[in-house]
Input
Amino acid sequence: MNIITFFNEKGGVGKTSLATMLAAALAIQGKRVLLVDADAQANAGAVFGVAPYAGLYDLLVRGANLNDVIIDIEPQRVVTADEALAGKLYLIGSNIETQNIATSRTEMDAFLVKMLELEDSGQVDTVIVDTPPTPSLLHGMIYMATDGMIIPTRLEAFSMTGVARTLKYRETYNKMRQGFGQPPIKLLGIVPVATELATTEHAENLKHLHTTYGDLYTIYRPLHKRIRWSESIAARRSLFAYDPGSQAAQEAWNFVNEVNVHAAP
Output
């Protein structure tokens, strides 16, 4: 089982859009995918028409069983009505209580323990985690359980600062993981999102991203700013269900295929 987490210590950089899109795409490709919504805003679940619920809080704080908090996403939220979903997409949802996980008397390894239980069950192939921007105990739990991480960023100053901050957190938690005999978190890459490369700011910041990190990490092809992303979210369906033939969907598939290459064992 592979756990892929979207991190950036800055809000509004596309974590939820990419996490939900990747989860849907992998399910379309035949994988059994669990999407974990670790943000109290519960936007990842909302993308698929799921109302906020205390799934993650119940799991980590109240000691609920995995099967009691996991729900199935309806296939028509993932693919078009005339298609069959080759895999499965599950969700552990969130609500306002999720923000209290950071202050609850919760063990640091609680999330990892639950993910190991899930792996032993053989129920899921891949876990995709959408995170909030604010560092917390919950962030720490997720870092300790993550196999590979992806950093989305807008090509704007504060978002780029978030990339540097996130990389420092990765170093910190890799040292902690080493102390527990765990391998380092694999950085699957940095993704420029909602790009408008005709503007000087975005064009220059893309160059800066490559200059600063390109020799060390994978920089994905930019995902351009396209209205289909926000329209599909408003429709409570994946991009592939909403407009599978769009340029946005094609760019999304390019991203998914790159992730599959970098996330392979």
Remarks:
- The domain at 2-256 is CATH 3.40.50.300 (Rossmann fold).
- The two ends are 11 Å apart (CA to CA).
